[in-house]
Amino acid sequence: MPHDDPDHPHSVLPPEPALRVKALETVLARRGLVDPAALDEIIDTYQNRIGPQIGASVVARAWCEPDFKAALLADATPVLAEMGHYGRQGEHVVVVENTPDRHNMVVCTLCSCYPWPLLGIPPGWYKSDAYRARAVREPRRVLADFGVALPKGTSIRVWDSTAEVRYLVLPMRPPGSDGLDAGALAALVTRDSMIGTGLPSAPEAT
Amino acid sequence: MTRVHDMGGRFGDGPVIPEGEGAPVFAEDWHARALAVTLAAGALGQWNIDMSRHARETLSPGDYARFSYYEKWISALADLLVRQGVLTLDELRGGDASDPHPLADRRLGAEAVARVLASGGPADRPADAPPAFAPGQTVRTVRPAGNRMVDGGHTRLPSYAGGARGRILRVHGHHVLPDSNAHGLGEAPQPLYAVVFAASELWAMPEHPDDEVVLDLWQSYLEPE
């Protein structure tokens, strides 16, 4: 049974989480404070429209167009806004480039900050205690959990998203992808490669 | 001076379990609903993003550790609705109130969702003074890490980075100060910097001598070195 805790009013709601959400939605909708149709619209936006395919198209374009890449690395926010990739949790974006000498990896140790307009809603592991706790202290062991091993000479820069600046990793273009157009390249760009816990897929041998 | 959410560097959490790239965005339907209710309620304009984060951080340590991600969201939302006076405890319980709420005219309609999500809420503000630090300059973070205005209040300097020597990497401009904004004390914008720290400055046994950690830190979190 829920208990009353004056410091934590949530304790008056049903403890089972699905029921807790339902109870809150019901109360708010009955008082005219939320519109169930608006909830459907928000869910549809992040389930079906805004996701890592957007970031992948940005990365593929950066691989193909040196001027675009330079502009993106210099000041990403206006470049992305011009393409329509702006909005909640993506108001200030910095793009960081992986090189043979430096690998970049993004975390939010204090909560779950993530570039929504480019990657959508973060995956469960990004929000997990294990990732939040370990990514800053032992990024190489975390990468090993993803099956990624970096060369000894590559240093890692971990970006802890402590403010409203959101970071996107520009991964290295995979070898053997020379003849591919931006569409085919985008298909190689994984979500994890834009967070820094993965690498882009290798092009299929033809 | 720390709270349970401040877990960067902590030992003992076990492996990270990756999900496939094609895993569903929301593992359960109620996860989607929890996110949507939180965003829609936020659109009523009765709190800001810093208050919202602080509400999750002030869940009891037991609840914070026990709750799944979206349980934290929905529970913190219930707490915020009462703390900010939107609902009474009785109304939250599902009491008999069914008359339109005074804030009902601020309800986020389905037709406004795309516009509201696409316009976001930028945190930068016009500069009222030049930044005190420049890229390349060495600085040290304050220690202990903690809110200097409200005891136990919201701050974005993680405890693992308190008292550490770093170097200014980028100047992001003036941004709203969470330590103030989370407590209704005003936006109090300050210069925000990306500050880079050698891993050896933060950890007793860093994995690699050249590894680094970058944090975005407000000017009042930093002292000249």
TrEMBL record, chain A:
Residues at which Fe(3+) binds:
108, 111-113
Query: Which GO-annotated molecular functions does the record name?
Result: nitrile hydratase activity; transition metal ion binding
Presence of keyword Iron: yes
UniProt keywords, alphabetically: Iron, Lyase, Metal-binding
Gene3D superfamilies membership: Nitrile hydratase alpha /Thiocyanate hydrolase gamma (3.90.330.10)
User: Key word Iron present in the record?
Assistant: yes
Q: Which reaction does it catalyse?
A: an aliphatic primary amide = an aliphatic nitrile + H2O
List the Pfam families hit by this protein, alphabetically.
NHase_alpha
Known InterPro entries for this protein? CN_Hdrase_a/SCN_Hdrase_g_sf, CN_Hdrtase_a/SCN_Hdrlase_g, CN_Hdrtase_asu/SCN_Hdrlase_gsu, Nitrile_hydratase_asu
Where is the Nitrile hydratase alpha/Thiocyanate hydrolase gamma domain positioned along the sequence?
17-197
Belongs to which family?
Belongs to the nitrile hydratase subunit alpha family.
Q: By what name is this protein known?
A: nitrile hydratase
UniProtKB/TrEMBL annotation, chain B:
Q: Where is the Nitrile hydratase beta subunit domain?
A: 122-224
SUPFAM superfamilies reported for this sequence: Electron transport accessory proteins (SSF50090)
Q: Which reaction does it catalyse?
A: an aliphatic primary amide = an aliphatic nitrile + H2O
InterPro entries in the cross-refs: CN_hydtase_beta-like_N, CN_hydtase_beta_C, CN_hydtase_beta_dom_C, Elect_transpt_acc-like_dom_sf, Nitrile_hydratase_bsu
* Top EC category: lyase
Q: Where is the Nitrile hydratase beta subunit-like N-terminal domain?
A: 1-100
Q: Which UniProt keywords apply?
A: Lyase
Q: Does the keyword Lyase feature in the UniProt annotation? A: yes
Q: What is its EC number?
A: 4.2.1.84
Database matches in Pfam families: NHase_beta_C (PF02211), NHase_beta_N (PF21006)
Cite a single GO MF annotation: nitrile hydratase activity
Q: Which Gene3D superfamilies match?
A: 2.30.30.50, Nitrile hydratase, beta subunit (1.10.472.20)
Q: This protein's superkingdom?
A: Bacteria
- NCBIfam families per the record? nitrile_beta
Tell me, what does this protein do in biology?
Answer: NHase catalyzes the hydration of various nitrile compounds to the corresponding amides.
What the record says about family reads: Belongs to the nitrile hydratase subunit beta family.
What protein am I looking at?
Answer: Nitrile hydratase subunit beta
Organism, per UniProt?
Cribrihabitans marinus
Taxonomic lineage from the root: Bacteria, Pseudomonadati, Pseudomonadota, Alphaproteobacteria, Rhodobacterales
